[in-house]
Design brief:
single chain, alpha/beta, SAM-dependent_MTases_sf, Ribosomal protein L11 methyltransferase, cytoplasm, EC 2.1.1.-
C-alpha cells in the first residue's frame, strides 16, 4: 500500500482531489482532502501498487503542477486492533461514537454508539459523518425521526444513531458488498432493532420503494451520485421529511443544493466540518 500526499492552497488541492476521485478507472483506491492549517489544505490518496502511486502523482502534476506530491509506502497494520488501543471517541451533539475501549467511559446523558474501526466507512471521525450526526440532532429536537433511509450506510453509524435517538426503523444501503455484514453486525452490537442493511446500487429498488416514504433520509456519498439520486430521493421522502446530504467539499455544495431544489426539496442549512459540507434540506409539506 502506498500513500500519496500533497499540501498547498485550497484550489489546487481540491482540483487534484476531483481529478483523482473521478478518473475512470482511478489509480487511487481512496482519496481525501481537508484543511490542514490556516490557509493550507492537504490531499491524501492511497494506491495498492507503486505503478498506481506513480499514476496518482502524474495526475496531480498534470492537474495542479504547483503541488509537490510525495509517495510513502505504508506498512500494513491491523487497524481494528489499533482502534481498540487508542481510536479517540467522537462527540457530535448528544451522540458519542467510540470503540469498545472507550464506550464504557462515555459522558453521562450521551447517546452512545459502538463502532469499531474496520473495513466499512464511518467511525464518526470524518467531517462528513460528524456533519450528518449534528444534522440528525437538529431533526430530533424538532420532531420524531420516524422512518430512516441511509444511502451509503457504510458501518451503519448514522442509521444506528438514528434508531438510538428514537427512529421507528432504518434501512441502510451500500454499493460496497463488504459493508453490509459490518453494518448489520454493528446494529446487533448496539442492541438496536428495526435495522436492515442491503447491497444496493442507487435508490430504485423494490424493497426501498416498499418501505417509503421516509421521514429522514441520509445520503453521505459523493457529489455526482448525489445529483443523480436527487429525483429518487425526492420521491422517497415523506412530506415535511428531512434530507441530509454529505460527502461534499465546500465548493460542491451549491451544485447539489441546486439539483435537489430542482426537485422541490427546500434548503434549510449547511454544516461545515473539517473541509466538508453537509446540507440539511426538507421535502415540501
Amino acid at each position: 500500500m502506498y500513500q500519496i500526499s500533497a499540501r498547498g492552497a485550497r484550489a489546487p488541492v481540491e482540483a487534484a482531489w476531483d481529478a483523482l476521485a473521478w478518473a475512470d478507472p482511478s489509480p487511487a483506491g481512496a482519496v481525501d482532502c481537508k484543511e490542514d492549517g490556516r490557509g493550507v489544505w492537504r490531499l491524501d490518496a492511497f494506491a495498492e501498487t507503486q505503478d498506481d502511486a506513480d499514476a496518482c502523482v502524474a495526475i496531480i502534476a498534470e492537474t495542479s503542477p504547483e503541488l509537490n506530491a510525495r509517495v510513502e509506502e505504508v506498512i500494513e497494520r491491523d487497524w481494528v486492533t489499533m482502534s481498540l488501543e487508542g481510536l479517540p471517541p467522537v462527540s457530535a451533539g448528544p451522540f458519542f461514537v467510540a470503540g469498545s475501549h472507550a464506550i464504557a467511559r462515555h459522558a453521562p446523558g450521551k447517546i452512545a454508539v459502538l463502532i469499531e474501526a474496520g473495513p466499512a466507512f464511518g467511525t464518526g471521525h470524518h467531517g462528513t459523518t460528524l456533519g450528518c450526526l449534528l444534522a440528525l440532532d437538529g431533526v430530533r429536537r424538532r420532531r420524531a425521526i420516524g422512518k430512516v433511509l441511509d444511502l451509503g450506510t457504510g458501518s451503519g453509524v448514522l442509521a444506528i444513531a438514528a434508531l438510538k435517538a428514537g427512529a421507528s426503523m432504518a434501512l441502510g444501503t451500500d454499493i460496497d458488498f463488504d459493508s453490509v455484514p459490518v453494518a448489520n453486525e454493528n446494529a446487533k452490537k448496539n442492541n438496536v432493532t428495526g435495522f436492515t442493511a442491503m447491497h444496493v446500487t442507487g435508490a430504485n429498488h423494490p424493497r426501498i420503494r416498499a418501505a417509503a416514504p421516509y421521514d429522514t433520509v441520509f445520503a453521505n456519498i459523493l457529489m455526482k451520485p448525489l445529483i443523480g439520486l436527487a429525483p429518487e430521493i425526492a420521491r422517497l421522502t415523506a412530506p415535511g421529511g428531512t434530507v441530509i446530504l454529505s460527502g461534499l467539499l465546500h465548493h460542491q455544495a451549491g451544485q447539489v443544493r441546486q439539483a435537489f431544489e430542482g426537485h422541490g426539496i427546500l434548503f434549510e442549512r449547511r454544516i461545515r466540518k473539517d473541509g466538508w459540507s453537509t446540507l440539511v434540506m426538507r421535502q415540501r409539506d
